[in-house]
Structure formats: C-alpha cells, structure tokens
C-alpha cells in the first residue's frame, strides 16, 4: 500500500517526515561491532545514498518483503554465504520477520541437488535396463 493510499483511506496513520540528508547521516552514524570488538560506523562499511527511483511495496505470497544485495569480493563465496547465514540465524528477529538467501550460492546448491537426483535416477535406470536385458 502506498502513502497516498493510506492518506485517502483515512487510516489515521501519521508519517513523521525527516529530511533525507538527516536520515542518511543518522543511518551512517549507526555502528556495528567488528570481530575484535571495535565499533565501526555503517558509513565506513557501505555507501548510503538517496534512491530517486519510484518507491513501491514488493510482495511475495501476499506478504511484504524487501531485498538486500551485496557483492562478495572474496573468492570463497560459499564460505561468505555460510557465515552470513549463520550470523542471520543467530540474530534475533521481530515476530513474523524471516530471511532467505538467494543468488549464485543458492543456484549452485539447487544445481547440485538436481544433478544428484539425475545421477541417482540414471544409475537406477541403467540397473533396470541391465536387469531386463540379462533377465536377472
């Protein structure tokens, strides 16, 4: 649902407008804890900027969702994905909030599963044909 739709329906929702530059500065000032325990500002880890594309609500299966993308610069993509997934699993999320991973690591995992099924089916088919040919 868009902001103008909320206002038209008269839901009583109040929107606190914040100047974009103040919001970006506030997000950049947020800190995360590094491996050695030091505090690192978010704007030191990522570039935070205003997005000028039209905003929209994304839905999957009738539920709103958002996507976060990142470019992995390490050669060990599966290791990075595993660490991210482990960290997300240990992070307490609000009720009703879930996460899922996608991208190349998920595609590779799906490909391995499909290849394993194809290999098992082909071995079974060879055994079946061999059994039928030799009546054994």
Radius of gyration: 24 Å
Number of domains: 2
**Main sheet attributes: strand count, strand direction, barrel closure:** 2 strands, antiparallel
DSSP helix count? 5
Q: Estimate the global geometry from the Cα principal axes.
A: elongated
Number of strands: 4
Q: Report the span from N to C terminus.
A: 65 Å
Note the run of SSEs as H and E. Answer: HHEEHEEHH
Helix content: 40-55%
* Strands side by side in the biggest sheet: 1-2
Parts with pLDDT < 50 across at least 5 consecutive residues: 1-11
Give the overall pLDDT as a whole number.
Answer: 79
Strand content: 5-15%
Structural class call reads: mainly alpha
SSE blueprint and pairings:
Blueprint: H1 3-9, H2 20-29, E1 31-33, E2 39-41, H3 42-45, E3 58-60, E4 63-65, H4 77-90, H5 104-133
Antiparallel strand pairs: 1-2, 3-4
Give structural attributes:
136 residues; mainly alpha; two-stranded antiparallel ribbon; two-stranded antiparallel sheet; 48% helix; disordered N terminus
Describe the model:
The chain has 136 residues and is mainly α. It folds into two domains: 1-56, no CATH class; 58-136, no CATH class. It is built from five helices and four strands. The chain has a two-stranded antiparallel ribbon with strand order 1-2. The relative contact order is 0.05.
